[in-house]
Amino acid sequence: MALAEEPVATASPQVSYYRDVRPIVQANCQGCHQPAKRGGDYSMIDHAHLLASGESGSAAIVPGKPTESYLIELITPVDGQAEMPQGKAPLSETDRQTIARWIEQGAQDDTPKSAQATYDAEHPPTYVRPPVLTSVAFSPDGETLAVSGFHEVILQKADGSGMQGRLVGLSQRIESTAFSPDGKQLAVAGGSPGRLGELQMWNVGDQQLAYSIPVSYDSVYGVSWSPDGKLVAIGCSDNSVRGYEAATGKQVFFNGAHDDWALDTVFSKDGSHLVSVGRDMAVKLYEVKTQRFVDNVTSITPGALKGGINAVARYPGEDQVLIGGADGIPKLYRLFREKARKIGDDFNKIKDFPEMPGRIYDVALTTDAKIAVACSSLDGAGFVHVFDVASGTKLRELEGPFQAIYSLSLSPDNKQIASVGFDGQIFLHDLETGKKIGQFAAVPVSPHTASTN
């Protein structure tokens, strides 16, 4: 009789820090443990920081010894609760086992050299050439411009006379910035494409990060504030729209009605409703309190709209929105339907403005709602047009030439337009005449390095 063979022992598969462990930490821990906000005096931004000790003095990770690693104790639930992630559900059993096996196998670092650079307030990014700028926002007092950079938001004096601060965070790309109605906080939407989406909340006065919220696994967009300053909303590349309590960062709104990325958001005049636009050629309306999808503001007839919608701005004092997107035509819509929907109708549309060259990337309205502004780009050239809202006619085009323009902001006194785009410059124009009154670099560029690159 043949003897049964003894089973062959197999070693546990090798766990990768960069591929397996880092995404777990990134999604669950880095919001509170990063250079800009070191909870417990402990950063988890990279392998070196992860192996260090926090304020407890205990070794967070002891390579080869998971039972002696304080991190394992913190993430292990007792009676269904774990100390970390703080205020969240415990990590899944699979994630905890992945981290434990990685430590048991020696907690090796396999981070590619290209991904090893980290930035903080003491070590901000350096630029060898001007970066592409995707966001600009005036502060409510008109004194400051918040401009997107690489891993940071740059606070520039609005007259171009100097830099006021650099808000350095995790996200490689900053997609959208918005000051709170009182100007005390700055909400930032961005991320690291294909890896991390992030909502940042900064205190403007001391330039400190109040909190960071990881969101999905790709960049997030279109951050906006409710009129009372209590909520912020974002659009996400997982097709969802989300809302958060501004004071705490607690998620209080979620809806996945979009069929493609949600790219911009705005609240109704009383904050009871939320509007989003996206790559699915839709403008969607939600009730904030119930998180309920209410209506497609635009026509849902196939072919009625041409291409995605990138930007939305609310008409001041009214429940109407200005939108712009791939078809290059700014449009004004009412939010709430006054007639029953019929196949093929676009009843909520109030008017079209004259078509712009290429794709519209941003839109804005003056606080008195008399003037609408939009920026577009085509074949590397940028355009900013000014429209009369009442008549729907084009008043003027801002003095150029520009390279591609991706974002604009109107000063609170309705006298100036700031615009940014491909060439890394901030342009200031007079709204009434369209004449350029200023131009300056958004970020410092090393002259020596730039001359050789």
TrEMBL record:
WD repeats lie at residues 398-439. Residues 9-107 form the Cytochrome c domain. Pfam families: ANAPC4_WD40, PSCyt1, WD40. One of its GO terms (molecular function) is heme binding. Gene3D superfamilies: Cytochrome c-like domain (1.10.760.10), YVTN repeat-like/Quinoprotein amine dehydrogenase (2.130.10.10). It comes from the Bacteria. Residues 107-126 are annotated as: Disordered. Keywords: Heme, Iron, Metal-binding, Repeat, WD repeat. InterPro entries: Apc4-like_WD40_dom, Cyt_c-like_dom, Cyt_c-like_dom_sf, Cyt_c_Planctomycete-type, Quinoprotein_ADH-like_sf, WD40/YVTN_repeat-like_dom_sf, WD40_rpt. SMART domains: WD40. This is Cytochrome c domain-containing protein. The lineage of its organism: Bacteria, Pseudomonadati, Planctomycetota, Planctomycetia, Pirellulales.
